[in-house]
Amino acid sequence: MSGQMINLSETTLMWFIVHFIVDYYIMHPNKLEKQMLCKFSSSLIIYITLFGCFLKNNSWKEISFLFITSIVSHTLVYYFNRDLNKSNTQKFTDNSIPYTFIRHVGLQVFILLLIVILSQSITPLKSFLPLVFYGVPTRTILQWLLLIILMHSPANTTMKIAFEKFQVPDKKVYWLQSFLDDKTGNHITATIPGAGALIGTMERLITCLLMDLGQYALIGLIFTSKSVARFDRISKDQAFAEYYLLGTLYSVLFVIIAYRIIF
User: Fold this and answer.
1) What is the mean pLDDT of the chain?
2) How far apart are CA 76 and CA 29, in angstroms?
3) How many Cβ atoms are within 10 Å of 21's Cβ, its own excluded?
4) Read out DSSP for 189-240?
5) What's the sign of the alpha-carbon dihedral 149, 151, 152, 157?
6) CB 10: neighbour CB atoms within 10 A?
7) Which of 126, 116, 121 is nearest to 63 (CA)?
8) Comparing 25-39, 56-70, 112-126, 132-146, which segment has the lowest mean pLDDT?
9) DSSP state of 1
10) Helix axes 138-151, 238-262, angle to 10 degrees
11) In whole angstroms, what is the distance from residue 36 CA to residue 228 CA?
């Protein structure tokens, strides 16, 4: 697939990588609140390292401003996400999902656009990863690193926020299992927690690789194998079938948009 939607500099790619690591892997409110100090300290160290790389070619005041802006933005995102996490424990109405989704994505888009603008004011570094991995360009390494980071927690978190009300509750799975055992003799086992998210991550990573190789026909095999693994439940549970289809279409759309923006 040729043509890049946005021309991202190496500086912007580095900042994006740090942003998503901090937002979705360190500061994400899925851990205990007592770990807040540790998460915040880790975020500070990562950003000090990032902006410290630019001190040689940029003024101290300019880098300090960018550093403070980054920390403030992550603090805002953290408290927004914490509110979303609390609301997920409550019953969703028809309008609550679009609102939380728009708020989450809108805040991320705003911060990413801000990063693109602010990164233009930074005097770029000379390639700090020369001839790494047998001469692969620094830009290519950063692009793939960013893409891999996006395919796991950012993709899974956004999907959960967008389609939470369509997800089949565990108690429905157990009820369905009991019902089918009594009526048909077929045994259905509830899925292992986290298995679906991991499958989605692997699915998106392989899709990215096949897109880069231009093997678009093989992408269909990924979704076919995924459907075979869930065929029994899909055929017997209409609600799960709809949620499964939403997740599959979302994964395809997420990969296409992310790949086109980065590459």
Assistant:
1) 80
2) 12
3) 19
4) PPPPTTHHHHHHHHHHHHHHHHHHHT-HHHHHHHHHHHHHHTHHHHHH-HHH
5) positive
6) 20
7) 121
8) 25-39
9) -
10) 160
11) 41
Burial code of 226-240, b = ≥16 C-beta within 10 A, e = fewer? beeebeebbeebeeb
Residues present in the chain in total = 263
Most confident option among 19-28, 181-190, 227-236 = 19-28
Going from the C-alpha of 236 to that of each of 87, 173, 195, the distances in angstroms are 30, 11, 20
Secondary structure letter of residue 76 according to DSSP: H
Give dist(CA 179, CA 206) in Å, integer: 36
Q: Which residue has the higher pLDDT, 191 or 253?
A: 253
Higher pLDDT, 222 or 177: 222
Which positions ≥6 away from 12 have C-beta within 8 Å?
Answer: 115, 116, 119
Predicted pLDDT of residue 83? 67
